[in-house]
Amino acid sequence: MSENISTEERLAKLESEIVTLFHYIKEIKDEQKEFRKLVAAVEKIANQTADNREMLELNNNKLDDISARLTDVEHQPAESAKKRADKISDTVVAVVVTGIVNAIITAVITFLTK
């Protein structure tokens, strides 16, 4: 009978250990589920970061384009004013030269008609 008790005790102990092992397996499965969720979240964050980087690069390109256009717009009035000043100085020179030529022609005609 002592063998039966010993066998029954061993059987009860093994059953208890089996229950404990199943509990550990359940915990491991639960942790694995949480780990998979964490991996999925990290992957999602990585994808969002890549998307954000692409959007940032596009925005930087747009800002560069806007900056270049703004620089062009800022320089246009100066270029336009320089062109006007050049035209005015050309006109003044032409008027002065024409006046001098007219004075010379008038003096020559006056001298010849006397």
Distance between the termini: 167 Å
Counting H and I runs of at least 4 residues, what is the number of helices? Answer: 1
User: How many domains, as an integer?
Assistant: 1
Please report the total strand number as a whole number.
0
What structural category characterises the helix and strand content?
Answer: mainly alpha
Overall pLDDT confidence:
90
Could you say which overall geometry the principal axes of the C-alpha atoms support? rod-shaped
Q: Unreliable runs, pLDDT <50, ≥5 residues?
A: none
Order of helices and strands: H
Using the CA coordinates, give the radius of gyration.
49 Å
Strand fraction band? under 5%
Proportion of residues in helical segments:
over 70%
Tell me about the largest β-sheet.
Answer: none
Structure description:
It is a single chain. This protein is mainly alpha-helical and 114 residues long. The chain has one domain (1-85). It has one helix at 2-113.
Descriptive tags:
single chain, 114 residues, mainly alpha, 1 helix, 98% helix, rod-shaped
In summary, what is this structure?
This protein has 114 residues and is mainly alpha-helical. 98% of the residues lie in helices and 0% in strands. The termini are far apart.
Strand-helix topology:
Layout: H1 2-113
